[in-house]
Amino acid sequence: MTAKSAFIYSPKQLGYRFHDNHPFNHMRLQLTYDLLEELQAIPQSLIIAPRMASDEEIAYIHYPDYMEAVKQAGAGNLDEESAYSFGLGTEDTPIFNQMHEASALIVGGTLTAVEAVMSGQYQHALHLGGGLHHGFRGKASGFCIYNDSAIAIEYLKRNYQARVLYIDTDAHHGDGVQFAFYDDPSVLTLSIHETGRYLFPGTGQTNEIGSGQGYGYSINVPIDAFTEDESFIDVYETAIKEAVEFFKPDVILTQNGADAHFQDPLTHLSVSLKSLHLIPKIAHQLAHEYCGGKWVAVGGGGYDIWDVVPRAWGSIWLEMTEQTHVFNDEIPKGWIDKWQEKAPCALPQSWLDSPKKMPTIPRRPEITEKNQKTLEQALYHIRREKNTHKNRP
After folding, report:
1. Model's pTM, two decimal places?
2. Distance between CA 6 and CA 109 in Å, rounded?
3. Which domains does the chain have, with CATH numbers?
4. Across the chain, what does the average pLDDT equal?
5. d(CA 153, CA 253)
6. Which of 37, 185, 249, 339 is a Cys-bridge partner for 165, taking CB atoms 3.0 to 4.6 Å apart?
7. Mean pLDDT throughout 322-334?
8. What per-residue string of b and e applies to 288-302 under the rule 16 or more CB within 10 Å gives b?
9. What is the rounded distance in angstroms from the CA atom of residue 189 to the CA atom of residue 291?
10. Residue range 16-32: average pLDDT?
11. ∠ CA(319), CA(320), CA(323), 5° rounding?
């Protein structure tokens, strides 16, 4: 392992749990951790337990009255009408016991990852429990109570005066993070997501490019439903490379939702593990090229927790630690034997998806063409800025 990396994890993070039938299930953390352990890919010396975020740190982004509502809701002391006004007690974000404490641990995990990298002890850090990108300053949204990524970015700004590039490849638009820094030129947010025409949260159009001093520092690429690997990879590679070159960040923070996969039950994209392996690979390369290796990665969406998420998220760590040779091997039998009885489906045998499982895309040429036009619209303003500088005498 040439770049020292930190893995932020504790079984206590499984306490962020709404109810047994809710699609957001952090058992995926344990499944991913166990898979990597079975591979003997995580030395104990690289595992760091997450700390609890303080109220002061959470207040970097969230309003005090909202934080108090979360505390009261988790203690069973918030009436239904008040809860709804804060986005709590909804179908997406039900109330559960000690929700403030569970959420503060998630935020603290992402701050632990940031501290590991910015202290110089590690070049990279992975916190799969984080990536809750829909939370707003005064409202829960889309399974997200506190927005750990937004808090981490503000933490990076205040404590390290860092220019932060935030890259979000979740199938759902990273709305909470984008709007937290919409007028801030020290943060560039890049979100590549399924178009909001049919998918929550409905935002993330190409014309959402920032406001005030932050005008031009938000980039959105809303790709079409049923986008497959070839088109996704082309869009991703082009967008991330041009964004990094334009912004020249001090640190890269990637949100790695695994719900763009064709098997995900909540979305309509059609990429495979091929794309989900490539996402961290390119981010890794660019972090070394532009940021001295400073790369913090968090989790996000991903609702096929048995088949897809452990392979997708496991690959982030394997990329960080340069152990991707295992992609040529089968999934460890010990992991399959441990979890198969509990799984509602057959567990995967290999790191990549079988071609037999890949869906047929009837409108593939049209989707590819549309995504190219969307990409051109999304990058128009930074390409124009680049050409303006190039042509100045």
Report:
1. 0.96
2. 11
3. 5-47+111-391 (3.40.800.20)
4. 96
5. 8
6. 249
7. 96
8. eebbebbbbbbbbbb
9. 16
10. 97
11. 50
